[in-house]
Amino acid sequence: MKFNNIKLFAVAILASMTAINCSNDDDNVTGPTGPNFTGTYVQEDQMARPAINTVFVNDGMKDAFNTTTPSDMGAAFQAAFQTKLETLSPAYDPASPTDANALGFTAAQFTGVLATDVLTVSLDAPTTFFDGTNILTGRNLTDDVIDVELILIFGGEAGLTNPENPGLVSDNVASNDKEFLMSFPYLASPW
């Protein structure tokens, strides 16, 4: 009986010490109750369309390109992109400004689209990067984006059917190493 009294006394002392140490500091919450988006954020990279930043933006322009607002990109970078495109691809001859790619875009028109590095989405057309008919209406996981970009850069007006530079219109990667899933998250698990 004496041992039980000691236990009860110890529990009472512990409870009273806990009560003394507790405060009501959680009664007046003054901090944010949701996500806090205050502060300064910095744009680090632009990569809406794969390989555009990598191929068309020279090393000395990377920081400027990555921090430029998309609405200002065309005016700031189109001329440099056109020079690079005409240098890379004999399908665009600077002496023939009407040379066009598979989309029917001249070098100036195409680089105007590329210089504004945003991924456009259409609400009323099939979602595709380019399917031969629909142009930049979004992007499916199954779209072979690199092949499309190579066709548009090096293929010339005939594109894939009779490319001007046949060795440069494909990366020769026909599919993923794993099939996409039929439900979210759609991407296959890593090896």
Automatic annotation (TrEMBL):
The organism's place on the tree of life at top rank: Bacteria
Leader peptide range in chain numbering: 1-25
Keywords: Signal
Organism: Winogradskyella psychrotolerans RS-3
UniProt protein name: DUF4331 domain-containing protein
Signal is among the record's keywords: yes
Pfam families with a match to the protein in the record: DUF4331
Keyword Signal assigned: yes
InterPro entries: DUF4331
